[in-house]
Design brief:
The chain has about 300 residues and is α+β, with helices and mostly antiparallel strands. The longest helix has 16 residues.
């Protein structure tokens, strides 16, 4: 039996470590009902089930699919969508209700996890635009070639280390904010740089680098000028700063002036190649990627996803 074209498929991804998971959904449900939205909801049990459930919604014919989750859940959903034929993708609108740890891509558009009424009202207006996706092409330890899409950013080096450390400390501290702060402090006093060889546009960067961010959007403040609809990626390369410069860099990051820091070198490109990045972890939309082997390429695909945006 075919699904009504106006019926939404909602994938609810509860926050980890939050006890009142049902209350969050009940608040959102009241707003959906108030706007007269017809929907079917499925709930993920863990991060591994998001791709399975997103694929199920796509193949069952839902034309509007809304992810209630964070950057990583949205990344899973968009990768499922990109596995489908173009004719299928063209008919699907993807939306988000922020419900994760950072929600950076949702915040880029102005969506807030504390204002469900506004978010549902915006989504109910059924306004969308085609957006770009970044894509990383890499080889794993078994010699298998892979590619994975990203909405927000890829981080290489220290920022990916902080994400990894935050996940580990959160198991002990049971607080997203506290684990993030502790992770940053630990990295400040135990920071390291990485031997990298990067090719961006016609320039080769061959030196020790602290962190690299490749942004399709704001990249957690590291690519503040990036927009997911200009057909290009913003790249920031951060050389290893002195301790006091690092503190000033954190302040500029928080205040939205990260590109003003003397150790930050910005670029804009269609494609870049990471020829070498010894021992540097890679994070994609807030989650660690399996360690690439050898060189890898990061590119952009223009206007490939219909994304629901505010009025």
């Amino acid at each position: 039996m075919a699904v009504e074209e106006t019926r939404w498929g909602i994938l609810y991804c509860p926050k980890k470590g939050v006890k009142s998971k049902r209350k969050r959904w009940e608040r959102l449900q009241r707003e959906l009902d108030a706007h007269g939205i017809h929907y079917d909801m499925v709930q993920s049990e863990n991060s591994d089930s998001v791709e399975r459930l997103a694929t199920m919604l796509i193949r069952n014919g839902y034309k509007t699919i809304v992810i209630v989750g964070g950057d990583s859940a949205l990344n899973d959903a968009v990768n499922c969508l990109m596995h489908e034929e173009r004719s299928v993708r063209e008919q699907v609108m993807l939306g988000v209700v922020p419900n994760g740890s950072l929600n950076d891509f949702a915040r880029y558009w102005g969506f807030s996890d504390s204002n469900d009424a506004q978010t549902v009202g915006w989504l109910a207006a059924n306004r969308s635009r085609k957006i770009d996706l970044g894509c990383i092409h890499f080889t794993d330890k078994q010699g298998m070639e892979h590619h994975r899409y990203f909405l927000n950013c890829i981080n290489i080096g220290t920022t990916a280390d902080i994400m990894n450390l935050r996940q580990q400390t959160r198991r002990i501290l049971w607080s997203r904010t506290l684990s993030f702060i502790v992770s940053i402090i630990l990295k400040i006093f135990h920071r390291k740089d990485y031997k990298m060889r990067l090719h961006v546009n016609y320039e080769t960067i061959d030196r020790r680098v602290m962190t690299v961010c490749v942004g399709n959007a704001h990249g957690y403040g590291q690519t503040p000028s990036a927009v997911p609809y200009n057909g290009m990626l913003d790249v920031t390369v951060v050389y290893d700063p002195q301790l006091m410069q690092l503190f000033s860099g954190l302040w500029l990051l928080i205040s939205g002036r990260f590109l003003n820091h003397r150790s930050v070198h910005p670029y804009r490109t269609f494609e870049m190649t990471v020829e070498e990045a010894r021992h540097a972890l890679v994070g994609i939309d807030g989650r660690l990627l399996k360690q690439p082997v050898g060189s890898y390429r990061i590119s952009v695909e223009q206007e490939v996803v219909n994304f629901m945006i505010p009025q």
